[in-house]
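Person: Please comment on this record:
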Amino acid sequence: MDKKQLRNTLMLMACAFIWGTAFVAQSVGSDYMGPYTFLASRSWLACAFLLGLMAVLRKMGKTNPAAEPGFWQNKKVLLRGGIFCGVALFAASAAQQMGIGTTSTAKAGFMTALYVVLVPVAGVFLGSRPGVKLWCCVAASVVGLYLLCLAGRDTLSLTGGEWQLLVCAILFTAQIMLVNHFSPQLDGIQLSFVQFFVVSVLSTIFAFVFEAPSPDQFRAAAVSIAYCGIMSSGVAYTLQIVGQKELDPTIASLAMCLESVFSALAGWLILDETLSATELCGCALMFGAIVVSQLPEKRLKD
């Protein structure tokens, strides 16, 4: 087993764990402020956290020597990659937040995580050729997602808000593919910072145009903003960028779609929500798909 590939996959699973447990914080925050205001506040906090992290690492001598004597590494590519990734992330996050309010959480989770299918399909058009094993893992993950999120609950007929969630899945696919393209050329923390700076600026503009932010909203949602800004945005998206380096994007999407599993398990353990046998089978299928995706391919001897 490739140790670097395993390490990067574990990073993305940690990323999915943070995103999954942040679901409660996002839900609470949405009770106090609009989606653009919440997205702006968590994104500016993420920028501050990442700036501090970069300063500490630089002082400790942990920065990439290629960045010397300046601070920013590969500036032109960093600016281009940060803008593309940031715009995709902003659009995906906004579409998700708007769609969630119009449909069940179960269906929203299932439709958002459909990037597990869309990433390898997009890869085919870009010249990638996932093997049979990875396609089987993708299929197992989709079945697992269905069992976890939808079995016995909803139909798959789409309303207007659910079309927004489908667009959200497409946009997250674009963001994953863009990160896969730019991350090998850049410092992961710097790319994460520029990405969130773009999200912060765009969401702030939209918040003042379409919403009415107030100090009371920020006070009421302070804890949710702190967790989502530092952990979900600052830490998790940096783990995504670093973890995707030299990792097959199909395996990356498989690992990150575990967000739905961790969200369900967090609700079970922390909020005393129950998981049926069917839902537990869905969790097991998705975890199994990740494990199998890491097993080395057997080569036939001549």
User: Anything to note?
Assistant: The CA atoms of residues 261 and 283 lie 6 Å apart.
